[in-house]
Design brief:
This protein is an all-alpha fold and 406 residues long. The chain has 14 helices and no strands. The N terminus is likely disordered.
């Protein structure tokens, strides 16, 4: 049987889940153009999103943290290894449970098992994470925010049973997403990126790193206010949301200073620099959009144009920032190879797909706002360039097989 080189298997597993999630997304787009009988949009959407951020995102990041910061003895701990295995199995089962049965008993049980097991993983990582660098602080707080986000999953069941799908139900969902996305993913990804800079002996002003961490951290909890502005809330929520988004903007300024310093010293190839810049531009746009989202006018328009602006924002984060940064980090830690022409073509096709689908989302949305109208064959274009994303990933994926051993 063919096995991957030691230490790479979890990443290929996560990457496989990413491609399968992307294929589900492509199937959803296909259904908009060529409707499929008996296709349940919500069920496939649930599987697409859960597998993307719990399979591709969570598993990749947790494995990277363990391999970068834990000793060999700690990594071999049976409880830790068993917990990771359970997490992987539950995510694979979600690939089938959501499309077949939707958000019902089996899927809920899987999410509960995942949640409980992830607490064991979080405990062991926090117990064993050592160091005082900003990278360690970012990763620790990322895990704290994951634990905070997970509280919503338990509360959600209570709200659903007692009140149904009220405003409280949706605001609980947004609580989970906010602290998962803007907490866990943002903090851990930047922590791992800073770890790479440290590994490459790149000198960075400590105050820049510290201020980036502090402003980002202070902003994280109050920034949840931005997620509830869609419901009828008091004006104070708009004020809190604006202050939080402004603090994030300040953290972004310090991030720019860090990257400017890093770029002078970097000896990366073109692909690595391209991935870094693409991911950082996507992240910067996310921050800017959050500033605008603290104003009632933009909240109202975003809600009215949810299929374009809000979906565009979510894809900007998960694809443009999270996935691109993960590819970069995996490459720089030697977990995937992007050296061949085949894989480089894959990267360019993947990024082109992200760029054009994002342009389609936002041009369509803003076009409606200013009364220009809509694209003809909008869904067809979205289907075609969503296909670019999948094709690019497949190119990158199959290029890795030349690195296998027997």
């Amino acid at each position: 049987m063919l096995l991957y080189k030691k230490g790479k298997s979890p990443y290929f597993f996560a990457f496989t889940l990413f491609i399968l999630s992307a294929l589900y997304g492509l199937l959803i787009r296909w259904n908009f153009v060529f409707p499929i009988e008996l296709f349940v949009y919500k069920n496939f959407l649930q599987s697409h999103s859960h597998v993307a951020f719990l399979g591709w995102g969570y598993i990749s990041i947790i494995t990277l943290i363990s391999q970068c910061y834990l000793t060999e003895y700690e990594k071999r701990n049976k409880v830790f290894k068993t917990s990771l295995a359970i997490v992987m199995i539950t995510v694979v089962l979600m690939l089938f449970s959501f499309p077949i049965g939707g958000y019902k008993v089996f899927s809920i049980v899987l999410l509960a098992v995942f949640g409980i097991t992830s607490y064991v993983v979080a405990y062991m990582l926090l117990k064993d994470l050592k160091g005082i660098g900003i990278d360690v602080k970012l990763i620790k707080y990322g895990i704290y925010y994951y634990l905070l986000s997970s509280l919503a999953t338990w509360f959600l069941a209570v709200v659903l049973v007692t009140q149904g799908k009220t405003d409280l139900y949706y605001n609980t969902v947004y609580f989970y997403l906010h602290f998962l996305y803007n907490g866990f993913f943002v903090f851990t990804l930047f922590g791992l990126l800073f770890k790479i800079f440290k590994k490459n002996n790149i000198s960075i002003n400590y105050n820049f790193q510290y201020n980036f961490f502090i402003y980002l951290n202070i902003a994280c909890i109050p920034a949840y206010a931005l997620s509830v502005l869609w419901s009828k809330v008091a004006s104070i929520f708009y004020v809190v949301g604006f202050v939080a988004s402004f603090l994030q903007l300040i953290s972004l300024i310090f991030l720019f200073k860090i990257i400017k310093s890093v770029f002078i010293q970097l000896k990366w190839n073109t692909i690595s620099k391209l991935l870094l810049m693409f991911g950082l531009i996507a992240y910067s746009l996310k921050i800017v959009m959050q500033v605008f989202s603290s104003f009632p006018y933009f909240v109202e328009k975003s809600l009215a144009l949810k299929p374009f602006l809000i979906i565009g924002y979510l894809h900007l984060f998960t694809l443009g920032f999270m996935s691109v940064m993960l590819l970069l980090i995996l490459k720089e830690f030697g977990k995937i190879q992007l050296k061949s022409s085949f894989s480089k073509i894959g990267v360019f096709v993947f990024l082109t797909g992200i760029l054009i689908t994002e342009l389609l989302f936002f041009i369509q949305g803003f076009g409606i706002i200013i009364g220009v109208g809509v694209f003809q064959n909008y869904n067809m274009y979205l289907l075609i360039f969503s296909g670019f994303i999948v094709i690019g990933l497949i190119f990158i994926y199959f290029n890795q097989f030349k690195n296998r051993v027997t």
